[in-house]
Amino acid sequence: TPSNEWFAMYHKWDIKTSEGEYSAAVAVTDDVDVTEGEVFTGVRPACKAYKVVHTGAYTFLANAWMTAYSFVYNDTSIKKSQPPGFEIYVSDPETTAPKDIVTEVYVPLK
């Protein structure tokens, strides 16, 4: 059963080319039997992370990422981790005005 928590997990990201690999996902509350198509199941592992809450249109989401990475990579006391991070889409863009959309950006830490 979908939980209405939509998110994206980034596996690779090249900041110079703005190209990467990611998985678009929805959290579920029950086991899912996947037998057809390009649908996969998995677990988003628990982790410590630096979180930035972005309010506004998705077109400006890069600002939240830059803020998060700037903080994490400039603080030498923070131990960095991989993968690059993930986003949780708190608001439904079909029922929320672009200026009011809330997205949580997470940069994993060790």
What does this structure look like?
The chain has one helix and five strands, in the order βββαββ. The protein has one helix at residues 61-74, and strands spanning 2-14, 19-28, 48-55, 85-89, 102-109. It has 110 residues and is mostly beta strands. A five-stranded antiparallel β-sheet has the order 2-1-4-5-3, with helices on one face. The protein is globular.
Strand and helix layout:
Elements: E1 2-14, E2 19-28, E3 48-55, H1 61-74, E4 85-89, E5 102-109
Antiparallel strand pairs: 1-2, 1-4, 3-5, 4-5
Q: Could you give the order of strands across the largest sheet?
A: 2-1-4-5-3
Order of helices and strands: EEEHEE
Sheet having the most strands: 5 strands, antiparallel
* Helicity level: 10-25%
Kindly state the mean pLDDT as a whole number? 86
Q: Based on Cα principal axes, name the global outline.
A: globular
Quick summary of this structure?
This protein has one helix at 61-74; strands spanning 2-14, 19-28, 48-55, 85-89, 102-109. It is mainly beta and 110 residues long.
